[in-house]
Amino acid sequence: MAAISREEVAHLARLARLAVNETELDTFAGQLDVILQAVARVGEVAAADIPPTSHSIPLTNILRDDVVQPGLTQQEALSGAPDAQDGRFRVPRILDEEA
Amino acid sequence: MTDVTKATAAELGRMIASGEVSAEEVTRAHLDRIAQVDDRVHAFLHVDTDGAITAARKVDEARARGEELGPLAGVPIAIKDVIATKGVPTTAASKILEGWRPPYNATIMERINAAGMVMLGKTNMDEFAMGSSTEYSAYGVTRNPWDLDRIPGGSGGGSAAAVAAYEAPLAIGTDTGGSIRQPGAVTGTVGSKPTYGGTSRYGLIAFSSSLDTPGPVSRNVLDAALLHQVIGGHDPRDSTSIPAPVPAVVEAARLGATGDLTGVRIGLVREFSGEGAEPGVAAAVRDAIEALVKLGAEVVEVSCPHFEYALPAYYLIAPSEASSNLARFDGVRYGLRVGDDGQRSLEEVMSLTREAGFGPEVTRRIMLGTYALSSGYYEAYYGQAQKVRTLITRDFNAAFEQVDVLVSPTTPFVAFPFGSRTSDPYQMYLADLYTIPTNLYGGPAISVPAGVSEGLPVGLQIMAPTMADDRMYRVAAALETAIPPLTPPALTGSNS
User: What are the alphabetically sorted keywords of the record (chain A) (predicted)?
Assistant: First the structure.
């Protein structure tokens, strides 16, 4: 049985903001199915009472002294922007997205 | 004058400090070498000729003023294109960052500059460091100097090939699942992955933040240790940076070079010593282990029963973190923007930008990670993979109670021909079978040349406990005394 359907892949692409076309959907669905069936092997390990590890080196409450240091200038911060206006990042409209 | 491109980094540093050769001469010799061979190898995405000569002249001027130079002052270095270099193009080999010039330097770049090292340019890689062959670069493949029709490994194929082809004596790589070590193995170079948190991630374009580790690429073990010493150590700008001094890696490499391993206990990972590796790789690794025994090491077999689940766990954890990290490429603050015609919404522009900017492997991994983190699947996939990560760490801890270091092949196969694994992504993932457990555990590991199979280099991987990076350098340097040095690669293809 397939681990993932073409419809699910289309849904994932939407969630991840990837405008994947119809041909690519077929390819990705097949490939992701192979990968998911292989990685599902993690489920074979009995680990009900095992704590999860998110970071290998346990460090907590890592703080540094709160001293003023030079940061990027506005010009530097905007230097890589695809579009800027009045010293700000300019973005396409964000309202009426469903229209 | 001797050909300085053939010298080690340690020798170059000594020659520059003593005035035997100038930093500018050394830099120009390497730039000439790049001009001669890089149209065949394509290790570099960008060569910073003017920046390199300016940096070299500064070293020569400092020496003329009587300033004392550090051990690597004036020594050229190539930098993987995933490291932010102020004012110098940084793309992570992705179309989505084409033309981006970072307004800041990564911490390791600041340290490389402070040491007086000379950056030659930026090296090719798999896009966002996702891959094992450098075939997923958006800017064309890098070719293996040993056979131009084969892959140089990945993701850091450019750094490894640059060093193997004598275009640079040193390079920087980054290792998330083997991206320093596997290219090292298949190009006959040294690739060292420090302890996670031992080298700063500040300014490293993030792939999988709980795994990413920058480290040295070189042609010999001492050079790797010298570079490790330069880039390592605590960085307040990286909250996962370990607040402790760099382990004594240079001293350990010098100790190892005496060729005496008396009293060193080496563990052979049973699960990685049977089938899985090509026969020629397994044979070269067996010979290397015999050489270590002759140097006085004691070899015992140890069992790490959960290592077989490392690859599946990694391909859930790393894509999950990637799907989150790569959300920042939204066409707003830097890089590409596609489809902004004044009519389309932000969401549409974002989707078109990401589709145009990301290659197939990055797209696959973002979707895989999005899936593994979605509600309903989280516990079965990402949650379970994190528990497996705990079990793998316990395997390492138990093994290191019995032995000082663990050894295995670095990768199951020698450099493979272009195109042989791209159609089946999971076949590509198998290249990292032996390197991934270390990343999940967080410890250090190094790949060193261990001979050849079918005329192509084979690497031995040496793994050490967390923050005991010195141990792997000692064993690696000792092996170097027992293995005949590789002849420089021919820079020809098998099909040509």
Answer: ATP-binding, Ligase, Nucleotide-binding, Protein biosynthesis
